[in-house]
Specification:
This protein is of the alpha+beta class. The chain has 7 domains: 302 residues, YVTN repeat-like/Quinoprotein amine dehydrogenase (Methylamine Dehydrogenase, Chain H, 7 Propeller); 168 residues, no CATH class; 36 residues, no CATH class; 87 residues; 56 residues, no CATH class; 125 residues; 62 residues, no CATH class. The chain contains 33 helices and 32 strands. The N terminus is likely disordered. InterPro entries: Clathrin_H-chain/VPS_repeat, CNH_dom, Vam6/VPS39/TRAP1, VPS39/TGF_beta_rcpt-assoc_1, VPS39/TGFA1_Znf, WD40_repeat_dom_sf. It holds the Pfam family Vps39_1.
Length: 1053
């Protein structure tokens, strides 16, 4: 089984082979899983409405039928239903909702009546009734602002009754012949015009009847009550209606007034009246009407029209086809739209009559339409159907008692805020309440309609009826249901969409209780729709057992809720377990990016490592272990050690700062690295070269160890592992010794002593780093580096002498890697000997004295000041005339060239004279030599034809130098005389100063003052002269930098 537990201080999870193995099936949860198993989705319907009580039959109390309905929510615990009967009575019902309504009005619930008749369910009760007229009641409107009910009867009169039916009905006689009324609904103040402004300006009275009413004593109310103009309201209330009388629309407001001398406390004495606002023309044959903002939409047998209550303009929206059903309008308060019915099609338009959105296609021709939440309720043929307002799909069907030929009336809350609707069929009243959001979603989840549940939750969240956290809750609930349905991919998809779900809720599916993180697991059963958490293997076993039982039941003809795909192609246990592990890994990986508590983060990373190990995902294991993680080492070290994932364990140790343990593992891998530890699971083992794998594997181990040691300041730890790393790759050893990542550097003396003498390159590179990069001035290190380079150069020289046919490449190569140095050893030795002055040259000379390293010897003798020996090595041993001449130039004495000439002419030790080198020296530097000394130095063996030309050139050069010197002497003398003469002339110049002469600087009169004159002829007083100085005149010219030259002066450039 897939478990994690503490056994001998280590977590225990089987390897990937356990996925293919069987396990003991736990039958204790099988029945529960059958109830919550992989169900195939039913039709895309769910319960939105539920009956509040049994139908209420009024035939037991009244011998009449119901013609109209209206609802009014009083409080969360009471809703009033008004039913208008064919006999002209108005009946009041009280309904107690099953669920609290958050949109209840602020009015107080009505007092219970002693004579109230309560149905068997005790939720719907008959309160009282009142006689309104002898004619049928065709329209009802509840005026909640003034606690009245406006009633329209078929006799064409309007009646008004108090909301509790405590007083007799009152007829409003000002309007007669009314066939239809509609209440004005305003979406916002900005979208509506104020009809009172037009009343005050008399622009709204267009008929003679209105003008007559205006002339009746200065008042504007009717029905026998008159008030002053100053009492006229200026803000429109919610009791404005449009009444259809023939082909006219009368716009009026229902208002309350009190006769003089009556107390305000006596509500029963309040007089209701109508305030006539305007009259506009209308179409003939109007049977339905809705008033939204400034538009009155009416329906006739010919089509739908839009009438403006401001301008009275009448325009056609669209015509109805012939032989169509009667027109029907329904105001959708949620979206401030109007639904226009054409047979079975509902077209949605805005307040301007423009179609908006898609159309609703109903199954039957509606006889009555209502709105509740996001649904349109349609009553027809003895059935009630709910259609989603946005998608147009039928969500719920309700069949109630009654013949299909009987007319149905469905009514909702006028302001669209209620959750209760009422249905009347002849003499029966039925009430339905919208289920709360969670109950609707639960109903869908019980039937496994997960997509519909999420769609519903998202719609509710967009409509503001559900919080964002509740949507996350639904996602998590669906995820757990899918998880127990063995649909792991879809389950994790929902988990990822739930931001409130905690990753610790997944822990029980991966590890058994008790464990380190048991107290972190939230004890949240959600809606108790799925079994309690259990390890994946138990969930899969129980699910497979449920599939087996469902298969058996289907064979005997019993339908089950198990998915057909599972029945036709049952999944294997190993595939399910692998799928579960993969997708839970996906969820835990996403959870790592969340802001979690440290304990939860530890659980996520530790379980993630365990699941990686179950799938043998070596790359992911090593990536997690080598990066910043919160894995608990105690839970994983034994587990990884037993399964052979030593690299992962080493990475984990290193990430937790346990460098010693990590290096110990890398040392084991570096010394005995088997190919299977390196081989990727996707690679073919037979396709690998064992030697290549072994070498690269060891180098990988050494590379990882070097990364740890590069940052470690523990000198003992570095020296402990430096040896085996150097044996594998010297580059890594150098990186460790020369690393600047550590906080404090290692002791150079200890490092030099600890380096294996056989690892010459490592010692040289470390000393080079100390001298060049760290700028060490310790003579000991400089001498040691020089001696080491010299020894290596001697070894290379001896190797080349033994193999004279070999190449002259002096690079040092390791057996398996390239040389640490790119420059040849001789070049490195020569550069260091020339650049450093801190080593002991005599000690190095003693080492290379018997070798053929002549250039190195020359450098050392030069350090010691042995010029003659240096010249002899350069001229005679190396035969480098150019270097010898350059060295003579550096010495800077003429006798150095003469000494070099003597060496060329008399090399000694039986060597032939170097006449060509001597001629070259005379040719290049003959002018620096004395001809007599040269002639004395030339032996009689020198051929005359070789020396004559050179000697002749020397003599000519001497003569040329003599003549050139005389010319320079004479010219210099002439310049000196000319300069003296010019100075004398300047000093002997006379300047005439009179009373009008001014100082060129301060412009003061000179008079008898002391003055000075500059070479550019500017004159200043002595005071300005001291301020300006003797080198800078008033013009700003500096004669020391910008020399003045006058015509006639002799100037030589």
């Amino acid at each position: 089984m897939l478990r994690i537990g503490r056994t001998n201080s280590a977590a225990s999870i089987p390897s990937s082979s356990s996925i293919n193995g069987g396990s003991e099936v736990a039958s204790r949860r099988t029945n529960l899983l059958l109830a919550h198993s992989m169900a195939k989705p039913n039709s895309r319907t769910w319960a939105v409405l539920e009956p509040l009580a049994e139908e209420f039959d009024i035939s037991n109390h009244f011998r009449t039928s119901i013609r109209s309905l209206s609802l009014s929510t009083v409080s969360d615990s009471e809703t009033l239903i008004y039913a208008g009967t064919k006999s002209g009575a108005l009946i009041l019902f009280s309904v107690t909702p099953k669920y609290s309504n958050s949109c209840a009005f602020g009015s107080e619930p009505a007092d219970s009546d002693a004579s109230r008749i309560v149905s068997s369910s005790e939720r719907v009760s008959l309160v009282r009734s009142v006689a309104v007229s002898v004619s049928p009641v065709v329209r009802l409107h509840v005026l909640r602002g003034i606690e009245r009910v406006l009633v329209l009867c078929s006799d064409g009169f309007l009646y008004i009754v108090d909301s509790l039916l405590l007083l007799p009905a009152k007829r409003l006689t000002s309007l007669k012949g009314v066939s239809l009324i509609a209440k004005r609904i305003r979406s916002s103040e900005s979208e509506c015009s104020n009809l009172y402004e037009r009343v005050d300006g008399n622009s709204g009275f267009t008929s003679s009847g209105q003008r007559f009413l205006q002339r009746l004593g200065g008042g504007i109310r009717t029905n026998g009550l008159k008030i002053k103009d100053s009492e006229s309201p200026r803000e429109e209330s919610n009791c404005v209606f449009a009444a259809l009388i023939g082909k006219r629309l009368i716009l009026f407001e229902v208002v309350l007034g009190r006769p003089t001398g009556r107390s305000d406390r006596d509500i029963g004495d309040a007089n209701e009246s109508l305030l006539i606002l305007k009259e506009v023309p209308c179409n003939e044959g109007v049977s339905t009407m809705v008033w939204l903002n400034d538009s009155i939409i009416v329906g006739t047998a010919n089509g739908y029209y839009l009438v403006s209550c401001v301008t009275g303009e009448n325009s056609l929206i669209f015509k109805l086809p012939e032989f169509s059903s009667p027109p029907c309008l329904k105001l959708l308060r949620k979206e401030w739209k109007v639904l226009l019915l054409v047979d079975r099609v509902g077209i949605t338009v805005d307040a301007y009559g423009q179609p908006i959105g898609g159309s609703l296609v109903f199954h039957d021709i509606p006889t009555s339409v209502a709105e509740i939440s996001a649904y349109v309720v349609v009553a027809s043929s003895g059935r009630l159907k709910l259609y989603h307002r946005n998608t147009g799909s039928c969500i719920q069907k309700i069949t109630f008692n009654g013949n299909e030929i009987e007319s149905c009336i469905v009514s909702d809350e006028e302001d669209g805020s209620g959750d209760v609707i009422a249905i009347a069929v002849t003499n029966k009243v039925m009430c339905y309440q919208k289920l709360p959001c969670d109950e609707q979603i639960k109903d869908l989840l019980r039937r496994k309609n997960f997509k519909e549940a999420i769609s519903l939750a998202e719609d509710l969240e967009c409509a503001g009826e559900m919080s964002k956290d509740m949507l996350y809750f639904v996602h998590a609930q669906i995820g757990f249901l899918l998880l127990f349905d063995l649909q792991f991919e879809e389950a994790v998809n929902h988990f990822l969409q739930s931001e409130t779900m905690q990753p610790s809720e997944i822990f029980p599916f991966v590890m058994k209780d008790p464990n380190r993180w048991s107290l972190l697991i939230p004890r949240n059963r959600y809606w108790a729709m799925h079994p309690p958490p259990a390890p994946f293997e138990d969930v899969i076993d129980d699910g497979l057992l449920a599939i087996q039982r469902a298969t058996f039941l289907k064979k005997v003809g019993v339908e089950t809720a198990v998915n057909d795909d599972f029945l036709l192609n049952p999944p294997s246990r190993s595939d399910l377990l692998e799928s579960a592990v993969k997708h839970i890994i996906r969820y835990l990986e996403a959870s790592r990016h969340k802001d979690l508590m440290s304990a939860v983060r530890e659980g996520v990373d530790t379980l993630l490592m365990c699941l990686y190990r179950t799938l043998n995902s070596i790359d992911k294991m090593e990536k997690l272990a080598s990066s910043a993680n919160s894995c608990v080492v105690e839970e994983l070290e034994t587990l990884l050690d037993d399964s052979g994932h030593l690299r992962t364990l080493a990475f984990l140790y290193a990430s937790k700062g346990m460098s010693s343990k990590a290096l110990a593992i890398w040392r084991i891998l570096g010394r005995n690295y088997s190919s299977h530890l390196l081989k990727d699971s996707s690679m073919d083992e037979g396709a690998l070269d064992n030697n290549v794998v072994d070498i690269s594997g060891k180098e990988m181990a050494a590379a990882e160890a070097s990364k740890i040691l590069e940052e470690s300041s523990d000198q003992a730890l570095v020296l402990q592992h430096l040896g085996w790393i150097a044996d594998i790759n010297q580059h890594f050893a150098i990186q460790i010794l020369t690393s600047e990542k550590r906080s404090s550097q290692l002791s150079p003396d200890d490092i030099v002593r600890a380096i294996d003498p056989r690892k010459v390159e490592i010692l040289q590179r470390y000393l080079q780093w100390l001298i060049e990069d760290q700028e060490s001035c310790d003579p000991q290190f400089h001498s040691l580096y020089a001696l080491s380079l010299a020894k290596s150069a001697i070894e290379v020289e001896s190797t080349q002498n033994l193999d004279p046919g070999g190449s002259e490449d002096t690079k040092i190569y390791d057996l398996r890697t390239k040389s640490i140095f790119e420059q040849p050893i001789h070049e490195r030795l020569q550069i260091f000997l020339q650049s450093s002055d801190l080593y002991d040259p005599e000690e190095v000379l003693d080492l290379i004295e018997g070798s053929e390293l002549w250039l190195e010897k020359a450098i050392l003798y030069r350090k010691l000041g042995q010029e003659a020996i240096v010249l002899r090595i350069l001229a005679l041993k190396l035969e480098d005339s150019e270097a010898a001449e350059q060295y003579c130039a550096e010495i800077g004495r003429s006798d150095a060239y003469m000494q070099l000439l003597d060496m060329y002419l008399d090399p000694q030790n039986g060597k032939e004279p170097m006449f060509k080198a001597a001629v070259r020296l005379l040719h290049n530097h003959g002018e620096s030599l004395d001809p007599l000394q040269v002639l004395e130095a030339l032996s009689s063996d020198v051929p005359l034809q070789i020396a004559s030309e050179t000697i002749l050139r020397m003599l000519r050069a001497r003569l040329h130098h003599h003549c050139q010197g005389q010319i320079v002497h004479n010219v210099s003398r002439a310049l000196d005389i000319e300069a003296r003469l010019a100075r004398l002339e300047e000093r002997s110049r006379h300047v005439q100063i009179n009373d009008e002469s001014l100082c060129d600087s301060c412009h003061a009169r000179l008079g008898t003052k002391l003055f000075a004159m500059y070479p550019d002829d500017t004159i200043v007083c002595y005071k300005c002269y001291r301020r300006q100085g003797e080198s800078t005149s008033v013009t700003g010219r500096n004669f020391k930098q910008d020399i003045l030259i006058k015509p006639g002066w002799l100037v030589m450039e």
